[in-house]
Request: fold
Amino acid sequence: MANGTARPFVARSAFAYLGRNQGPELFFTDPFTAAAPAQSVIPKTLSLNRPLESIAINVRFRVVIGVADYDAVAAEAPATFLQRLRVTGTFKGAALTPIDMTGATINAWMRLFGLVGSSVVINGVRQPDPGDPYAQTVANFGAQGSYDVDLWYVVPTWPVVTVGQRAGNIVPLCYQPRDWNDTLQIQLDYGDRTSFGTPNAATTTVFTAFGSAAGTPQARIFTSYLILGAERSGFRTACVVRNEQSITQGVTALGNNVRLGVLQKQKTTNVLVKSGTVLAGTSAGVNVYAALSNLILDSTQVMIDNRPIRNNQFNLAAREHVNKQNNTILPQGYLPFLFADSQTPRSAYRGDLPEVVAPGAQFELVTNVVTAGATNQINVVQEQIWADRDDPAWMGTR
Reply:
């Protein structure tokens, strides 16, 4: 019993968590030019001298728009400037990408669960949290003028649960030093001026340092850690994986029972379906939504061999249910399927069990496309938990 395995999962985790965090600590500063889309691989591995609770990316710059206003702005601008965040490493000996998401989706993620996380600040004014409707305007960001933009992207390493449930649930899912062995690498994909929308042919844009007419923009990476007590090794660890993919095939024409994609056969805590129309004319490597919509898809289902796990017949009703469950207002175009609404990841859907998803069975997303459009695009995030198959914390769950 010295290793703590005799205690229930929640009790062991809560006993280990002393209730204090350290951070946010500045890990790295990355200057960039924004003249063209660019990828930046941070030249040192993520510091894991303590369990990592969250990562925060702060992107700051001034952009001066001159001569002519933008013709149109992206729905989620300027959070769209960080095109993608990737975190990769070796987890318990296996290559893994725990985070691969667009900046726009990261910006909205915490709001799905009724919490404030990421922020967008323009000229010192914090912008409203993503809601319904969710759209940017040229008058607010895109007209001629000078804009100091301060973007905060907060990425928890654990499935989002309420504050009162964190002590008993998040500790085994934070990034533990012994699991990753100094292998975690961060890559930031930056956009350019087309990540904000469609500039007029005459529009000019000049990027400089935040609050200055000179210098270069920069991104700063902050890390927050847990302080654990004597039971810090008395539990088995796991890793939350959130990977986002974009889908255009099969969603531009009307159709019923359209397969959006195959899901990974893993413990699944949440599945997000995000829909809208993509902006045309962006630079190569830049992808943003011109508009988000609740009306492109309907009767979206998570299914196993044509059997729905949640019998959703009306997407708008499903959105209202999540609003009630999470005390939130879902951003326009966002439809999450929750399997941790019990406020513990142990209620994850056990897609990893052969008796739940049989060998050869299809674990998939299926939907009706009820609004046709050549620029329709669907983004999907499957939040999964990678854990040891013999971890007693997961025994008996379905």
Q: What stands out?
A: The chain has one domain: 9-394.
